[in-house]
Structures are given as C-alpha cells and as structure tokens.
Amino acid sequence: MDNTPRQLFAMIRADMREDVLRSNTPWYCVSCYYCTVRCPQEVHITDVMYTLKSMAIKAKLYDDSTAPDFSQTFIGYIENFGRSFEFGLATRHHLKHRLRQVPAMVPLGLGMLSRGRMDLTPSRIEGMDQLRAILTRAIELEAT
Questions:
Q1: By the 8 A CB rule, do 71 and 52 touch?
Q2: Sequence-ordered strand ranges (E) for 1-144
Q3: pTM of structure
Q4: pLDDT digits (tens), the chain, 144 positions
Q5: How far apart are CA 10 and CA 13, in angstroms?
Q6: Domain that holds residue 55
Q7: Are 28 and 90 a contacting pair, CB within 8 Å?
Q8: Whether residues 52 and 90 fall in one domain
Q9: Are residues 137 and 72 part of one domain?
Q10: Does 40 lie in the same domain as 74?
C-alpha cells in the first residue's frame, strides 16, 4: 500500500480527493472486515474502501494495474474456497508483480505462520453451495 488506511483517512479529512482516489490502498484491501471489527471508532473501513474504489474508477483516476489483479485473485479464492487464503494471495501477487520484494516479505510470512495467523494451504468453508447461490444472485442483481 502506498498509504496506510490511517493516512488515507487523514488525506480525506485534508480534502486531498485526487491523491486519495489515485492511492492504491483501497485496492489492496481484501475485504476481510478485520479492521472494521477492531476499529474503536466503529468506522466501517471496508465499506469506505469499496466506495473509494468505485469513485476512483468513475473519475478515471486509478492507473496501477497490479491492484485490480490482486482484487481478482482475492475474489477467485472466495469463489473457490469461500474465504481468503492470505498465503496464496500474497505469494501469487508478489511473484507476479513485486518479485524484488519477496525476500523482504519472508520474515513477515514466517512470523505469521509461527503464530498461527496464516495457513500454508487453503481450506474450504462448509456450505459452498449456499455461497455460490448467494454470489450468483448478487451478480444477477448487479446486472439489473
């Protein structure tokens, strides 16, 4: 991310609209809602990130092609497993777009693995049929 979410909110408060919409930060949000759940101010951060993505697209101000690819990879994991797979998501993204940064990511990855915060293999949720039905219906509603 070129800005942390906290920096992005400061930029919003400072009326730096164009800088905010050009930021790649909303595109790297994986919509896990962890930040929203933990926010002491009860800010719906994930919803703000969705809105900023939509505004950037509408204003044609976003031009980094790697972030939408990151988003598509995330969606692929959701559609196939019903949840994010952080190890696969980060690995795929860095190998494809940020190869030089891979060595710097190793300590972070090892720390997350050792603390049980990340798995080496994806796991599928129960009720994938229901999730697929929900996703199919959402796509139908979006088309209308």
A1: no
A2: none
A3: 0.58
A4: 788 888 999 999 999 999 999 998 888 776 777 788 888 888 888 889 989 988 998 898 876 667 778 878 888 999 999 998 888 988 888 888 888 888 888 888 888 888 888 889 999 999 999 999 998 998 888 787
A5: 5
A6: 5-59
A7: no
A8: no
A9: yes
A10: no
